[in-house]
Write a sequence for this structure.
């Protein structure tokens, strides 16, 4: 497992040169600026509570300081989010002063199907995203049997086609990485294929920093520098020091005070804290711990 200087960048010569925001300690007299970005949460992290009581869960997250969310689990057949009609869910968000700026949709299932099927499904996703006020529709996952050069090339073709369809509706498509994109495929990687064979005008990128740390040689700033302005969203999550599984921000081995990249060169618009599992206590406590850590240690850079 390759993690290189990613998890020990504080000891790397020249680190300060590539991290203008977080490489220097704050002076005691420094007044923290107002955050430029809403503090976001990927709702998959708290899926158990969302399944029981979405409204109470959103209110609890709001009390922790979360303002924007990325959803999962859109019911395309019924046009619903967490059991609510899209318009009703939007009303709930508006009443709470919250937003859902992105969503993860299960597009991978359509890669082996006729093109008309994914065009129709994408149309339903567009309708839902417009109804709840999302800007981004995000491709989150590629099935295991497609994680080869041909599969990534087919995925890139679909992304270009869908990206044009989504852009025509006034929205934007993004691709979310895991770790398998960085595996060697005979001199290239899935991520190289996705980034080189998609049109950067219609396919943006969502950078998952946990998977980057776990599976690649790149630091966040290094990969951003390869595709400047294209990483419109980030996933920020920590890695357990012993198991490499997920953990709460501040409890793991990724030191974001040293590794958080430059939002401007990234093209950042939204970021989402995420913890897909391995909760120290439970999902609600983990959301609270991560929110507190980000507000104390990272929000001044965001």
């Amino acid at each position: 497992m390759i993690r290189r200087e990613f998890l020990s960048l504080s000891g790397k010569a020249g680190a300060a040169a590539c991290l203008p925001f977080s490489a220097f300690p704050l002076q005691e007299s420094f007044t923290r600026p107002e955050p430029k970005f809403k503090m976001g949460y990927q709702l998959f992290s708290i899926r158990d509570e969302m399944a029981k009581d979405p409204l109470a869960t959103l209110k609890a997250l709001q009390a922790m300081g979360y303002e924007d969310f990325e959803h999962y689990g859109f019911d395309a057949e019924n046009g619903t989010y967490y059991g609510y009609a899209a318009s009703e869910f939007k009303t709930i968000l508006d009443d709470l002063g919250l937003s859902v700026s992105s969503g993860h949709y299960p597009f991978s299932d359509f890669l082996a199907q006729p093109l008309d099927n994914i065009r129709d499904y994408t149309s339903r996703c567009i309708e839902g995203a417009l109804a709840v006020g999302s800007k981004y529709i995000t491709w989150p996952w590629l099935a295991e049997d497609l994680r080869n050069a041909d599969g990534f090339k087919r995925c890139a073709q679909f992304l270009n086609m869908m990206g044009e369809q989504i852009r025509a509706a006034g929205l934007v498509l993004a691709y979310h990485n895991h770790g398998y994109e960085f595996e060697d495929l005979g001199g290239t990687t899935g991520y190289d294929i996705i980034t080189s064979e998609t049109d950067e005008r219609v396919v943006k990128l969502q950078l998952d920093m946990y998977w980057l740390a776990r599976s690649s040689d790149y630091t966040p700033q290094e990969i951003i520098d390869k595709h400047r302005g294209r990483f419109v969203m980030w996933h920020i999550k920590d890695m357990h020091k012993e198991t490499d599984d997920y953990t709460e921000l501040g409890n793991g081995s990724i030191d974001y005070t040293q590794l958080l990249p430059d939002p401007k060169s990234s093209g950042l618009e939204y970021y989402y804290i995420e913890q897909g599992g391995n909760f120290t206590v439970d999902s609600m406590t983990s959301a609270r711990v991560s929110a507190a850590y980000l507000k104390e240690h990272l929000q001044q850079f965001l």
